[in-house]
Amino acid sequence: VNLWFKFLMVSGFLFLLLSVFNPCVFAFSEDEAALVVNEAEETLASTFEAVKEAETNGADISAFSELLKDATQLLSQAYTYFRVGDFDKAEKFANLALEIGREVKSIALSLGEIKSDLPTKEMWDTVIGSVIAVFVVVIAGLLGWIFFRRLYYRRKSVMKPEVASVEY
Amino acid sequence: LNIKDFRNLFVVCSVVLSFFVIFPTLNLFFPFYIEESFSELSVLGPNHMAKDYPFNVVLNREEHLFVTVSNHMGESAYYRVCVKFRNHTQSFPSDNEPSSLAPLYEFRVFLLDGEDWEGEIKFSFLEVLHSGDAVQVKKLMINDVVFELDSISAWDSEYDGFYFQLFFELWSYDVPLHNFDYYKRGFVGVWLNMTV
Predict the structure, then answer these.
(1) Using alpha carbons only, what angle is made at residue A157 by residues A152 and A162, rounded to the nearest 5 degrees?
(2) Checking DSSP bridges between strand B63-72 and strand B116-131, what pairing results, if any?
(3) Which residues are paired to B81 by β-bridges?
(4) Torsion B72-A70-A74-B65 (CA) sign
(5) For the range B10-19, what are the long-range contacts, defined as Cβ-Cβ under 8 Å and sequence gap of 24 or more?
(6) Which helix (H) or strand (E) segment is B195 a member of?
(7) Which of chain A's termini has less CB crowding within 10 Å, N or C?
(8) How far is it, in rounded angstroms, from Cα A127 to Cα B22?
(9) HSE (CB half, 13 Å, CA atoms) of B159?
(10) CA distance, residue B173 to nearest chain A CA (Å)
């Protein structure tokens, strides 16, 4: 019993000792952090490519642009911490960027597949604006012309010499 | 001029005016006028204006700058702004080539067409060695991150000072290249005189 008690005590002590050094045990090495940072870099690059494709196909990308902004910012923080040797933080920020990047990529890819031939709102605004403006110009021109013609003939009739018969 | 001449004049004026107002729509389908596409990189002083830039810097005093990027490319863009530090003999970017120095700090920015971005740069010199007619910068803090450096500047007798430069390079993501590419003439910087 005494031996078992000693064994348990030593085990407990070793367990406590291990928990003290726990952060060191699970700290990321430079290579591990580099791997995650590179993966985040590649993911965000491919995400941007997918976003561009979706944009080219006429998709509205403004809905997830904020997410992509957050992801790019997180990646830059990951790079900064990697450069100063804080690999734990570098890995943490790179993983967050990676997570958001993957999410945005899947949305962008699904949007990119649907090639939209429908004109965008901006396009519609331009077309409708132009049609209304042409209509206004034509109507204004026509009304202007009618008014001018009346004025022209009125002036002409005033200026016309009166013909009168003269009896001798 | 008789009435027929006036009628022709009205028709010509209406047609010309109609062409001007329908021009934006025609340009959508038959683009004969293409807007110039470009990106902008600028550095602003602590008051968000192009003045009051830090110049005479001392040890442990925090200085502020703002770096801005604007996207006028006609489509979304992914940028990288590299923050670099040099003395007057080290590599400086040219119109076509970036500086060969490694970036200390960097920003990654995704911008939609027509969007602007502004990032703050807080920097202070934490360790500077002065030996005779040279100054060596050992530690520089940018946005609360400490960078170890080994940048030496000799006394500049022409301009009376120990000069360093904090500069920014703009890189944009090139889809066909699958990588970032240095944006032509994409650099700005501020000269700093280390006063000891």
Answers:
(1) 160
(2) antiparallel
(3) B107, B170
(4) positive
(5) B10/A141, B10/A144, B10/A145, B10/A148, B11/A141, B13/A141, B14/A137, B14/A138, B14/A141, B17/A137, B17/A141, B18/A134, B18/A137, B18/A138
(6) none
(7) C
(8) 8
(9) 15
(10) 8
The answer to whether B14 faces chain A, any CB pair under 8 Å, is: yes
Please list the rounded mean pLDDT of every run of 10 residues in chain A (168 residues). 78 72 63 94 95 87 90 95 93 96 91 62 83 90 89 82 67
Residue type, B43: V
Say whether A65 and B76 touch across the interface (CB within 8 A). Answer: yes
Nearest of A108, A44, A102, A49 to residue A75 by alpha carbon: A44
- Does residue B195 belong to the interface with chain A, where contact is any CB pair within 8 Å? no
User: What token pair was written down for B139?
Assistant: 């530690």
Question: What's the token pair of residue A90?
Answer: 């570098």
> For tokens 């005033």, what's the residue?
A158
Whole-angstrom distance, CA of residue B91 vs CA of residue B102? 10
Of B17, B173, B178, the CB nearest to A137: B17
- Strands B179-194 and B56-57 come out as parallel
Cβ pair A108, A64 in contact under 8 A: yes
Query: What length does chain A have?
Result: 168
- CA-nearest of B60, B37, B69, B108 to A48 is B108
Taking the model in full, what pTM does it have? 0.73
Cβ-Cβ contacts under 8 Å, B75 against chain A:
52, 55-56
Tell me if ipTM is over 0.85: no
**Cβ contacts (< 8 Å) between B121 and chain A: which residues?**
none
Length of chain B: 196
> Is A76–B22 a contact, with Cβ atoms under 8 angstroms apart?
no
The helix (run of H) or strand (run of E) holding residue B4 is: helix B3-29
Number of A/B CB contacts below 8 angstroms equals: 91
* B87-132 confidence digits (pLDDT tens): 989 999 999 999 999 999 999 999 999 999 999 999 999 999 998 8
